[in-house]
Amino acid sequence: MSIFSKWFSSKKQQDEAVPDEPIIEQAVSTSQEAVVNYCEEGQKQLAAGNYIMSLEYFQAAIEANKHDERAYIGLSEAYLAQGKTSNAEKTIYQLLAINPESHKAQEQLIKIKGRKTEQETATDAQHPTKYTEEELREKVKAVIKVTKGGPTVTNVPFDPRYELTDYRFPTFDLLNQDDNKSEIDQKDLEDAKTKIVETLGNYGIALNKIKAIIGYSSVYYEIGLEEATKTTKIKDLEDVIARGLDSYGVHVIVANSSICTGFTIEVPHEFAKTVSCRSLMCTAGFQNTDFALPCLLGVNDYNNPVMIDLAKMPHVLIAGATGTGKSTLCHSMILSLLMQKHPAEMKFVLFDTKGLEFNFYTRIERHYLAKLPDIDDAVVNSPENAKRTLASLCIELAQRTDLLKSAMCRNVEEYNEVFKARKLLPTEGHRYLPYIVVVIDDFALLSSQGGKEITTSLENILGAGKLVGIHAIVGTSRMTADVITAQMKSCLPARFVFRVNSASESKALLDVVGANLLKEYGEMFVRLPGSPIEKVHGMYATSNEITGITDFIGNQRGYSEPFLLPEVPDDDGYSYDFDDDGLRDSLFEEAARIVVQTQQGSTSMIQRKLKLGYNRAGHIIDQLEAAGIVGPFSGSKSREVKVTSEAALEQILRDIYNKENGI
User: 155 to each of 21, 420, 428, 453, 515, how far by Cα in Å?
Assistant: First the structure.
């Protein structure tokens, strides 16, 4: 997260911010000498080419004194050295908001603009997201006002997209051109109408209207009768009509009553083609939708797009035999969400036991994916990682539930609205809650490898995830009771069923037979809560389209790291103080100094800084807790750092040394 973004997103930092006029002299928690040391060390690291470390030192200097010009200039130089001109520019604009008369800031701004590439300059012209000094000063004045008690936050809404304001959504040019034009001649339709009228007339049935509708795989002739006719008489003419039209598979659809005044004749045609992404995503209905999580499925028999709001489902079961189109539907739903949702508003947790289906999405790890801090793979592949990730999601679910309770909100939408109105304070643990979409490619395979723990965790997520913004898309190739339990079925009212192997499986999933008779790839029956079962022809996303969209997103600036899920405690908890032999880890002191300097107490940070494995880093953080340097495990949040200065830390380290050596 950039300094500029962190400053606006944290209540604590907003309270320490300074309005434009007058500049208020505030006491800082660290001495000016410490600021000088941070800046000097940052310059040394920058000169040595250690850009990440230099960023840490300059950020620490700004945290110590938010008015120090050298820290901002140094941080801007560190960003420039990494080629991050946008971050460098934002840093200088923050300095100008505090001190508009800074000559060094003006010179640095000219230098930054001179370093911009032609591509960045063109992007700025098309998507202007940078602020002038005056614009930023006005923005600062709007957010911060001065009272007798110091700076306070006004009612300017919090913008979750602020950190990635320059993010651009994928364009429709990335989708393949739609060449699926109907080849049915209008003259053929008129000839068929004439034959239908003649055939029915031969049996004494007069028509008052006939209308042809071209569907995905059939033409539907809607017929109105002059007078009511027995339903059985109409149904008995099905074979006669088929012979009259010289066509196979003709189906007469009549109302379930003894008499009827109209019916429909379904006549298959040979021009059915793939339902392309472009043909559906370019529709006004998708582009202008107000759904929270819009997912395109495909088209129905009448060629009308079918779209659902995943947030209202609230979870989806995708079932069917192997090779019927389940994974393709998962890709279609994921792409629909990527085209509509900003990275700040939604995250994916992807489970791919086969290790082949979801590799496309590793490119967007720092934009859209969520994972555990100690797992390297952005997509969960192994059963062990799946267990821990699902357990972590259960912790996230519990934390979100507690946040909603404390805010007295009924669902995540209400909570986020209250948070954006700045009525909930980050200092009290509140945070913006993006939607989390869990996608499991083949749950049958995952549960067979991972055991009961995976099923139990998923049942918990399905049962309580709706209100806190956690939604699941569960695919499976086996529908037996040991895979899809009764509790899971009760939490999965939305079901998309492709071809299954038997009528009993169809009845178990849809309560009716028929899914066993589906023939085409991508054909499915869709059962939504409160709606009749509908046949849908699935949208097909090609590998080129998926790669094009993920590359487009992945080439843009993302967050500094993926969305990190809460750490999962080890089975033996966090009760031990030192190693099994009673000694501290050899890197204990170095880790302690890093934690105090950065004021961040997380296992993942220790792991990155010291280049350790997760188990050893977790062991060290437990020793730091036992020594009173950091607080206890607190879920997704970093542990509290109880030591605020290096002098206090040195005293603690001396006390530990003296105790160990009996001094």
Answer: 20, 9, 18, 45, 54
Residue identified by tokens 């990682």 is 385
Tokens of 504: 């009993």
Could you read off the pLDDT of 603-644 as tens digits, one per residue? 878 877 887 777 788 888 888 888 888 888 766 566 788 888
Instruction: Give the tens place of pLDDT for each residue, 194-217.
Output: 888 888 888 888 888 898 888 877
In a domain, 564, yes or no: no
Among 11-15, 86-90, 628-632, the minimum mean pLDDT is found in: 11-15
Helices vs. strands in the chain: H and E counts, helices first: 27, 18
579 and 594 fall within a common domain: yes
Claim to verify: residue 511 and residue 530 sit in the same structural domain: yes
> Which tokens go with 33?
């000498």
Give me the CATH number covering residue 582.
1.10.10.10
Tell me the per-residue pLDDT of 161-187, one tens digit each, with 9 for 90 and over: 888 888 999 999 999 887 655 567 788
Could you give the residue ranges of the DSSP H alpha helices within 486-542? 486-490, 503-510
Rounded CA-CA distance 418/401 in Å is: 15
Range of the domain at 250: 186-268
**543 & 441 share domain:** yes
Element (H, E) at 305: strand 305-309
Task: Evaluate whether 629 touches 661 at the Cβ level (below 8 Å).
Answer: no
Domain identity same for 547 and 581? no
User: How many Cβ atoms from other residues are within 10 Å of residue 583's Cβ?
Assistant: 11
Q: Are residues 285 and 191 in the same domain?
A: no
Contact 68, 61 (CB under 8 A): yes
498 plus 631 within the same structural domain = no
Q: State percent of the chain over pLDDT 70.
A: 84
- Phi first, then psi, for residue 226 (nearest 5°) are -65, -40
Instruction: Tell me the C-alpha to C-alpha distance, in Å, between residue 128 and each of 86, 172, 381, 621.
Output: 12, 21, 40, 43
What whole-number distance in Å separates Cα of residue 370 and Cα of residue 32? 39
In a domain, 413, yes or no: yes
Half-sphere exposure of 516 (CA within 13 A, CB side): 12
**CA–CA separation, 235 and 48 (whole Å):** 86
Average pLDDT over residues 593-600: 87
Mean pLDDT for 455-461 is: 91
Q: Are residues 23 and 105 in the same domain?
A: yes
Average pLDDT of the chain, as a whole number: 81
Q: Which of 412, 545, 535 is nearest to 470 (CA)?
A: 412
* Residue 173 lies inside a defined structural domain of this protein: no
Domain assignment present for residue 161? The answer is: no
Please name the residues in contact with 502: beta carbons below 8 A apart, sequence gap of 6 or more. 516
Per-residue confidence band for 232, with pLDDT thresholds at 50, 70 and 90:
confident
pTM above 0.90, yes or no: no
Q: Tokens 């000016």 map to which residue? A: 32
Residue whose tokens read 């004045």: 141
According to DSSP, residue 312 is labeled G
CATH number of the domain encompassing residue 122: 1.25.40.10
Quote the number of domains for the chain. 4
